[in-house]
User: Fold Acyl-coenzyme A oxidase from Panicum hallii var. hallii.
Amino acid sequence: MAMDAAAEVDHLAAERAAARFDVEEMKVAWAGSRHAVDVADRMARLVASDPVFRKDNRTMLSRKDLFKDTLRKAAHAWRRIVELRLTEEEANLLRLYVDQPGYVDLHWGMFVPAIKGQGTEEQQQKWLPLAYKFQIIGCYAQTELGHGSNVQGLETTATFDPKTDEFVIHSPTLTSSKWWPGGLGKASTHAVVYARLITEGKDYGIHGFIVQLRSLVDHSPLPGVTLGDIGGKFGSGAYNSMDNGVLQFDHVRIPRDQMLMRLSQVTREGKYVHSDVPKQLLYGTMVFVRQSIVADASKALSRAVCIAVRYSAIRKQFGSQDGGPETQVLNYKTQQSRLFPLLASAYAFRFVGDWLNWLYTDVTQKLEAKDFSTLQEAHACTAGLKAVTTSVTAVARILMKTVSQLASGKQPVGTMAYMGKVQYLMQCKCAVNTAEDWLNPVAIQEAFEARALRMVVNCAQNVSQASSQEEGFYERSPDLLEAAVAHIQLIIVTKFIEKVQQDIPGDGVKEQLQNLCNVYALYILHKHLGDFLATGCITPKQGALANEQVRPNAVALVDAFNHTDHYLGSVLGRYDGNVYPALYEEAWKDPLNETVVPEGYHEYLRPLLKQQLKLSSRL
Amino acid sequence: MAMDAAAEVDHLAAERAAARFDVEEMKVAWAGSRHAVDVADRMARLVASDPVFRKDNRTMLSRKDLFKDTLRKAAHAWRRIVELRLTEEEANLLRLYVDQPGYVDLHWGMFVPAIKGQGTEEQQQKWLPLAYKFQIIGCYAQTELGHGSNVQGLETTATFDPKTDEFVIHSPTLTSSKWWPGGLGKASTHAVVYARLITEGKDYGIHGFIVQLRSLVDHSPLPGVTLGDIGGKFGSGAYNSMDNGVLQFDHVRIPRDQMLMRLSQVTREGKYVHSDVPKQLLYGTMVFVRQSIVADASKALSRAVCIAVRYSAIRKQFGSQDGGPETQVLNYKTQQSRLFPLLASAYAFRFVGDWLNWLYTDVTQKLEAKDFSTLQEAHACTAGLKAVTTSVTAVARILMKTVSQLASGKQPVGTMAYMGKVQYLMQCKCAVNTAEDWLNPVAIQEAFEARALRMVVNCAQNVSQASSQEEGFYERSPDLLEAAVAHIQLIIVTKFIEKVQQDIPGDGVKEQLQNLCNVYALYILHKHLGDFLATGCITPKQGALANEQVRPNAVALVDAFNHTDHYLGSVLGRYDGNVYPALYEEAWKDPLNETVVPEGYHEYLRPLLKQQLKLSSRL
Assistant:
């Protein structure tokens, strides 16, 4: 049940009746467990039924009113979390369903984890209780006006002053202004600030510092701290509820013990020393953040595809015979070939996200036992899956490295294990002869493996011909990027196939997932046909597969995401499909409709129509 | 000179100095003539220097204030046009540079052309002078809540009443509400309304009617007319300046002579009669509208790519050696492989747009001589180039038809002429052996021809195997779409090659255009490598070309678009490249920065921080 209220109409009832699987069990497969479905359902309803959390007016609010509304919702959410004694799992879900980006996201998602990951035991004991009770609000001040992904290029300085046992935090240039951190502009009282640590005249690179920004008495910026919001972002509503901020320091002093000292310390005398905690631990945090991004991407895609599939089932266009009803847009093959691969991708990303979550836990446990063997692969795979181009190099490098070690007989493991079959994969011919053969997961997986391996080997050969490895990487970076993408797509397909090979209860649920897995794999195959053909692993004749299996189940497959109408926030994606009356009603709520004759008529329209515009050489 | 004011800094000076061609001559090649450059320059400066036309605050205005600002700018633009006695060419450019969508766009772009194209001589003499002087404001009311592209599905009725010699305009259902027309919501006094003509009890399908909507005395909606704005659109600013509207009729009566009667009439007695004017004339208008859309697409792309190239030259990231400066983002191959094909596309679309413009003139002249021979092709090509999927079928159909006629020995003409070489193209092997060979326009054109033809022939064979042609079209629609796209891309490449083969003055200008033509063609070739390989016209070894020729000229190539900073409206794309100080200054203008402590602090942040949130079971 994903409806907000008892629906009196269901324009999609026929679609739902035609579905060939058990939707309730598919919800379980999507959410991970029955418990996960139930708790999400409970939190979604709690939010949807609370008038404070309404969001249908969000696009009509001015930036100031939208921000104030965000503060109000955050306070109300916290009140409900306390009153109802919600668990951490419940509280996280409640915030998810409030669905309005704000300072709390950074407080819980970046400030607290940074202290947990990089603070000493004492620092955690001092700061975490304050953060847990919201006695302070924290954000994460890393990026600068002139520096984003390249953290080592940050310019903010933290210079140790042994006379007072303090660090002096300073912004030496305009481009060193902190720029973009969420929650910084207006809400946060504290930040973890990343700056170049300078002591005894030497620059030790980027470290984190806990810095108080605003007075806890009246919220005004502390002396030497300049704070502001960086202005509106593209899009109606959405991220404009967040106070992404700008921050400059003019020689702001903080006690020495506000440097996050888990990995390295500055002593009372100003000596820089490393602790014996391995610095690879920092990568663990990045792996965590990236796996959340993959999970978020799946959530966002599932919402978009839910709206698109439902509306495509409601919307009719062309195809009328003799004045009869027009054809549902969802019945057009061209629409199916666009939508169904995205529907399949939502499920594919969901399952690879589950695997990443497992990978993170596994890496963390190994790290604690000082086993770094899987860290590099986890780092590369999560970076690739996050698909941040600058970091994709990490994937490409590990692929190049693995290939170069094959000759020495070193057997690759984990997601690179397939490279061990190099002899076979480099010369295998695809056994697919008919379209139906593509429904065989073994054939799919082998085609993806052969394509990825051949692209990787080809890159490695080209890179090795360059005058230096760095030069080779630079010259071949677009090819390396494509090889890395091929590897990542192999991982996604593999994890989906693995999921489908498990026991999955519910009538028809497993069959639907198998079919979606095929749709995803064949979509990628079609989209990158050039790669598959160019590496010779398949021939031109092996092609296309119909989306026919998906069509009758499409609406039910998006129902299985279990999104409430409140969470979707879309008139077009309503559960009951009653789109047109709702669209019509919504339109009248625009402030422009408050008056029949618009403001400006008397000044600008009437004089024009009456040919009474005053002419002057200059206004 | 594209600067708004004398620049004191030019952070892009080194880029400009490195360019290997004459930028002033490239401006001529882009604009079409020296005259076109000069008049555009004059109008752009007129707008940029007028404080009424400022637009930097646009994203911060509420919807109501933005709309009022649009009315103000439209009135001021009209005042300037009258005062300065601007020509039609100048007035159109002035409106382009005002760069704020509003009712005038529909008045001049749709209302006036509809009356010109579909009105009789008498109707034109009555209505056009009123429109030309803005004594009335008109819009174009076609789409309905339930009906977009499928014009034949519209539900609004215009029923002739012989008793009073009037048409009764009526909206019989909710889905028949007019929905989306620009200028309708708040500004227009009149509309060309499309409705089903019913007379003597018979439905004669969709016809146009001039209907007055609002009082010319006080702008209030006339009796029986319900009018409103359909609400905010996605994006900050931009199309929210337009009053896209909703309109319902409750038995509104208009005189019979307000039916647009050039193609058909209803007599005083209610008889429906056709005039002897060929109805193909209607297609002429569609060809005109579509060629403007292609031209607009090129303009929009040129602005986006101008901003992206300039900022990529300013922005530095990674690649620092020993603490030296970081690398310009524009130097990364991955960035080049994204940006340069778009830069090349802006030029490619520009030149194919010029050709479409010629095609429109040619078709119009032929139509007046009752020669319909080229109309179908023009209709299909413009539809394809407009890339509206629903209409792309038109392209696919003409391709299928042309192929099927080959056997009968009928020689295809126009853009389909290459199909006459079917014997050769179906079995030719690409002569390209090295990357450099791809710089030969003959090789490029042949590869595109072979690919398009083989896809078309393949589709035709598959369609012919279906039980009926309609069934075949339905089943194969995704393939047909791809074949049509291949044909359209062939046209774009061909027109670019033809342009480059002309005499083009200016040092290095022709060479740059040749190079951009190659970049565009090879980008398409790489992107759709699967098609090229699958049809066997090229082999896997023939691949990749560097973007090296573009790099030193990139900034100058976007300078040649001659966009003012006002028109670009982008801090990141400033002509002088002085991005960071400007970005910093802009941020402070956000209304959220009016106060240091945000509104809502006392209600929602302070109680949270002070642990004084009032708990209650319900707010």
